[in-house]
Amino acid sequence: MYDTIAYQVLFAILLNIVILPILYLIYDFLFDIKGYPALLNTDIASFLFSLRGIIAVLLFAFVAIAIYCIEQFGLLYITASYQTGERMTAVSALRQSAKQLPVELAVVVRKAVYYVAVLAIFLAFAVINLIFRDSGFFIPLIIILALLCIFSLYSLYIRWIFVDYFVVLEGKKVSDAFAYKLNRKLFLELVVTVLAWFLLIWLCSTVIIIVFSALSWLLLYVFVDNPVLLAPVFSVLVALFSLIFIILSLVLMSLTSNLFTELYYQNKERERTGSDIIVPEPKELCSLSTPEVHKKQIHAALGICLVGIAIATFFLIPVVQEDIDSIDKTVYVTAHRGSSARAPQNTISAFEAAIEDKADYAELDVQETKDGVVVVVHDYNLLQVGGVDANIWDLNYSELQQIDVGSSFSPEFAGEKVPTLDEVIDVTKGKIKLNIELKINGHEKHLVEKTVQIVEERGIKDECVLSSLEYNALQEVRALNPDLPIGMIITYVIGDYAELDVEFYSVEPNLVLTKKFMRDAHDDNKEVHIWTLSPKADVSGYVDLGVDNIINDDPVMIRELLNEKQNRSEIEKLTTKFFTFVE
What we know:
Elements: H1 2-30, E1 38-40, H2 42-48, H3 51-84, H4 90-99, H5 101-131, H6 138-159, H7 163-168, H8 174-179, H9 184-223, H10 230-273, H11 282-286, H12 295-325, E2 332-336, H13 348-356, E3 361-368, E4 374-376, H14 383-386, H15 397-400, H16 421-428, E5 433-438, H17 447-457, E6 464-468, H18 471-480, E7 486-490, E8 493-495, E9 504-507, H19 509-512, H20 515-523, E10 527-531, H21 536-545, E11 549-552, H22 555-566, H23 570-582
C-alpha cells in the first residue's frame, strides 16, 4: 500500500503545481469575453453555445477524463505489479499511465457514454411522468425509476469491472474487453462482494467521523470559555480533521484498487483452472505482496503529518478567530418586494407591511414607462399581477395607473396601483432601507440615470443599495455616483467573480453559494445576500455559513428563525460553526 499512497501524493502534487496552473491560464483566456471578469447568469448560456464555449467544454471534459485516467490506471499498474512480484514505483506508474493514456481514454469515454445513455433514458421516463404528476402513481413511479436506474448503472459497473485490466494488462482491443461476459455465478458474487466492500468503507468512515466529532465536541466544550486557547484548539481540530480525511481517502483508494486487482487475478486463475472465483478474505488482503514499510518511513510520515498540522494550525488561527468572532454577528433581513407574503408585491401596502414587520431592508424592482417614469414593478408584462396583457415599456404612466395590481393577490387590496419610486421613498424614508433592483428589459432609455438622480435628490444615498442582474447597469451607476453601494445579482457564475466591482453579491444559494464563495467574498470585504429562501433547514445552514442578509417574502418568519439560532447555547453555536468549517 506504500507505493499506491506515494503515487496518489505524487499525482496530487503534480496536479496542483503543474496541471491546474496551466488550466487556469487556459480558463482565463477562454472565459474572457465582453471584457467581463466573469460569466454571469444568461451570459453563460450564450457562451456555452458559442464556438469558444464548445471548445472550452470539450477541452475541460477531456482534461478531467485524462486526470481521472492517469490517477486510476496508475494505481492499477502498481497493484498489478504486486501480484506479479515486479514492484512498480510511483514514478514508473505515472510514466506508464501517461504512456497508455490514449487507450485508457478510449475505455473511460466508452464507459461514460454508456452511463450517460442509461441516465438519459431514465430521465426521459421521469420527464414523461412529470407531465402526469397529478396521478396518484407519480411518486411510486419516480421511486421505482430511480431504483431501476441505480440497479442498471451498478450492473454495468460490475459487468465492466475487469475491462481496464483486459485492455492495459492483456492488450485486448477495447471492443473485445467490453464484449467479455461474466458467468451468472461470478456476476452475482462480484455484485455482493463489491457492494459489501463499499458498505464497509461507508461504515468505517462513518464510525471514524462520529468518534472524531465526539472528541471534538468534548474539547470545544472544555475550552469554550477560554478566549485565549479556543482558536488554537479549534484550528488544531480542523487541521486534524483534514489530515484524517486525506489519510482515509488515500488508504481507502489504495485498498479498493488492491481488492479489484486481486479479484481480477483470481478471475484469471478461475479461467485457467476452471474453478469458481474465491473472494479474498480480509487476512488475504492484508498479506498481498506489497513492499515492506520500514520504521524510518513510518517516522518520516508521522513527522510530515505533525509539521503539516503545525503549519496548518498557524495559518488557520486568524481565520478561525474571525469565524468565532462572527458567531453572533447581525444578519439583516430584507423584505422581498416588500412583505409580499401578506400584501401584493412591490406595492405601497407591501412596503408598509415591511415596515410593520421590522425588516431592515425592502427589496424592490424599478422599470421605466413609455414616457420615462421610474415605477416599481417586477414583471415586464402586467398579465400576472394586473390581468392586462401589456408591457411596461408600451404604457405611459397615466395608462399604468388605470391597472389594478392588488386584486390578483386578494380582494382586500383591490385598487392598489403600481407606485413610482418617488412614492415608495415617501413611505419608506427614515423607516426602512431600500434595495433597489434595476430591471433591464432592453427598452429602457434612461432608467439607471433617472434612478440615481432620484436617490440623490431624495437624500437616501445612505439608506439604499442598488442591485442588478446586468453588470453594465451597475457600472453605469458606479460612473454616475461612486459612493452608491452596488450589488451583483448572481444566479449562475463562471469565472473570477472576485474581480466584479461591487460591494455585495445577491445570490441564488442552491446554485452559487458555497463555503469558498462565502470566504472569498468576505476576504474581499464584500457582503453576501441570499434570496427567496423559505425552508428552515436551508436558512439555518446558510446562516451558519456566514451570510450577511436574507431576502425573503416573509421577514417575520426569517427574524424568528434568526432569534432561535441566536438563543442557542455557546457550545451549540461553536460546534455548529466547527462542522460548517470542516464540511
